[in-house]
Amino acid sequence: MSGGVKCRDWKRIAEGLQLGIPEADLDRITAVLDALEAAFRPLAASLPFEVEPAVIFSCETEGIP
Amino acid sequence: MTIQQAAAGLRERRVSAAELTEAALDRARRLTELNAFITVLEDRARKQARQRDEELARGQDRGPLHGIPVALKDVFCTKGIRTTCGSRIFADYVPDRDAAVVERLEAAGAVLIGKTNMHELAFGITSSNPHFGAVRNPWDLQRIPGGSSGGSGAAVAAGMVFMAMGSDTGGSIRIPAAFCGTVGLKPTFGRVSRYGVMPLDFTLDHMGPLTRCVRDAAITLWAIAGHDPRDDTSSRRPVEPYVPPREVSLAGVRIGLPENFYFERVDPEAAAAVHRMARLAESLGAHIVPVRVPDIAAMNTVGRIIVQAEAAALMERYANRREDFGADVRALLDQGRLLPATDYINAQRLRRLMRNQFRGVFGAADCLLTPTTPSAAPRIGQSTVEFDGAEEDVRLASTRLVRAVNVLGLPALSLPCGFDRQGLPLGLQIIGRPFEEAFLFRVAAALEDATDFHDRKPAL
After folding, report:
1. Which residues of B touch A28 (CB under 8 A)?
2. Which of B82, B131, B236, B435 has its CB surrounded by the most CB atoms within 10 Å?
3. Nearest CB to A47 within list B301, B335, B350
4. pLDDT confidence bin for B340, thresholds 50/70/90
5. Distance between terminal CA atoms of chain B?
6. CB-based burial of residue B69 (10 Å sphere; 0-12 exposed, 13-18 middle, 19+ buried)?
7. Catalytic member of B128, B149, B152, B172
């Protein structure tokens, strides 16, 4: 748990995705990821359903008629 | 000397582009301990300067940057010139095209002195580059210049060039500007084309200048801003005359001073310097308005998720070359690879909400004044800083007051606002409404004209 949020098992995720991240490198980043997730997940949970992502895509600018 | 002064000297034949260029090259050569450059273009710069002098002699005047020595952070693609992105991965990359900014600076007559050193892949704030060596702060060689545009900050502060371009994904122009005592502008997202710039990120990268004074930054923005169909995010809004007049008034301007977040966990000297500037603005006719800002820490979290995910996606093809990355960048890329896609998408959804929330701030104030960084430059190798008895990671502390502005896409300018007890520069951040760069320059110029911080030079 970090900040009341159940943490992901980053090592198992890395292993499952076959990312090839050495154990020692994973050890260095799991606490940082736990803290980031603890801050982020309550924000994501508060999102209204209809909000779309702020990414750019336009057929017009790609010249598609 | 400023760009305006040099431009006047060139037109009055008191100085030539060749002489300005030789002086820039000489200073870059004498101050190699700063490690500000990855590539210095001596022969090319001399040739370009001669051409600029010939053009002026026959009446061809390209504008205020004509014949002015400048530098580019080594993320801007330069045709036929190595562009490393501060990385071993791209150590031998020679682009076959120029970035849009490079094309525009060329059209404006600038003379390119070289490509500046930086934090590896623009993914960090120390500019202690494991492949090209640590950039050193001209005010104290044992300290970082900030980053990721650290070489650009050092080159301008040390008087090597009049202007150096930087890129800013989470503060990478404004942090080195603050730590090196220069002006640094991150324009509105879409104001300056990203075409031909090696990306760290697709949706947070911004390009802008670091300069010795406000009007030099305004001159540069005028040259590089404008629509570019090769960048889908490029704005079609017309470019304005950005350079403030000689006399600037702040009468009627409402300057917001945040009551929350921006002055928490900040070195008292940095906070006091900003408050002094606010009082100065008031004495120049501005109204100081206390404002409460939305959750900036949440915006920082969203910004970190987005940049880590996008940078990891960009660099995924090089994931099998782990040893070619520095340890800190490798760790950030690994974090990005582990984040679920849902986090990235939700971060981009939150970003849209946050942009709408922040609009309310500008109902009460025309701009915000904040510290750029919570303290002056940390030492090279220092991993944490202490505020109010609690330790904080140097990267997270240095980006804490600047990263949200990238998430919001707003224009922001860092202006020198004083020095701490150790003689290190402190920076003030002015945040404005989208596409109101001209207004930011006006406020910054009024404050600069009433102080002498920009006139002080490091003892090199």
Report:
1. 331
2. B435
3. B350
4. very high
5. 17
6. buried
7. B172
**In this predicted model, what pLDDT tens digit does every residue of B256-297 receive, in sequence order?**
999 999 999 999 999 999 999 999 999 999 999 999 999 999
Cis preceding-peptide flag for B148 (omega within 30 of 0): yes
Distance, CA of B410 to CA of B299 (rounded, Å): 13
Sheet of strand B163-168: strand arrangement: B37-40, B111-116, B69-73, B163-168, B206-211, B183-186, B412-419, B425-432, B367-371, B254-258, B287-291
- Within 10 angstroms of residue A6's Cβ, the number of other Cβ atoms is 9
Name the residue among A39, A43, A53 with its Cβ closest to that of B352.
A53
Mean pLDDT, residues B60-81:
98
Do B405 and B208 form a contact (C-beta atoms < 8 A)? no
Q: Are B233 and A17 within 8 A, CB to CB?
A: no
CA distance B218 to B448: 13
In the DSSP assignment, the letter for residue B64 is: T
* ipTM of model: 0.90
Pairing state of beta strands B128-129 and B287-291?
unpaired
B209-243 burial string, b = 16+ CB within 10 Å, else e? bbbbbbbbbbbbbbbbbbebeebbbbbeeebbebb
Packing angle of the helix pair B42-57, B17-30 (nearest 10 deg): 160
What value does the CA radius of gyration of chain B take, rounded to a whole number of Å?
Answer: 20
Q: How far apart are CA B347 and CA B263, in angstroms?
A: 26
CB contact under 8 A, A26 and B298: no
Angle CA(A41)–CA(B387)–CA(B370) in degrees, nearest 5? 75
Q: What is the pLDDT of residues B406-426, one digit of tens each?
A: 999 999 999 999 999 999 999
One-letter amino acid for residue B209 of the chain: P
